[in-house]
Write a structure and sequence with these properties.
Layout: H1 10-19, E1 21-24, E2 28-34, E3 41-46, H2 54-71, E4 79-85, H3 94-107
Parallel strand pairs: 3-4
Antiparallel strand pairs: 1-2, 2-4
Helix pairs in contact: 2-3
Length: about 120
């Protein structure tokens, strides 16, 4: 994921948590906040220590970044997003994880319609 597409500052995460809308399914929580200052979307991923040790948390982060990278053309611009991983996501294979992320993005109405 390119640097311009990342949320990195703690203050950015806190702003999205505080003022953004949240949607969830069993595996992920998605916080979305409209941000007109950026011309694309920015993504942050949060994986708690409750999920597992560093190897597991980093793997979840890598998988989510790849899923969002593939979905990038369909994601509406001018949004800051934070994806919070829940314990149930550990049981999914990659294809199920893609479907789950698409589902939570559709619930948040940030995916453009496919042509």
């Amino acid at each position: 994921m390119q640097k311009a597409y990342r949320l990195a500052q703690r203050s950015d995460f806190n702003k999205v948590y505080k003022y953004g809308k949240s949607t969830a399914n069993r595996q992920f929580v998605l916080y979305v906040l409209k941000n007109e200052e950026v011309e694309h979307f920015r993504l942050g991923i949060s994986v708690s220590k409750k999920i597992g040790k560093a190897v597991v948390r980093n793997r979840m982060r890598r998988l989510l970044k790849e899923i969002v990278r593939n979905l990038a053309p369909r994601i509406a611009p001018h949004h800051d997003m934070v994806i919070v991983v829940r314990k149930a996501a550990l049981d999914l294979n990659f294809d199920e994880m893609v479907k789950s992320v698409i589902h939570v993005c559709n619930r948040a109405s940030i995916l453009k319609k496919e042509e």
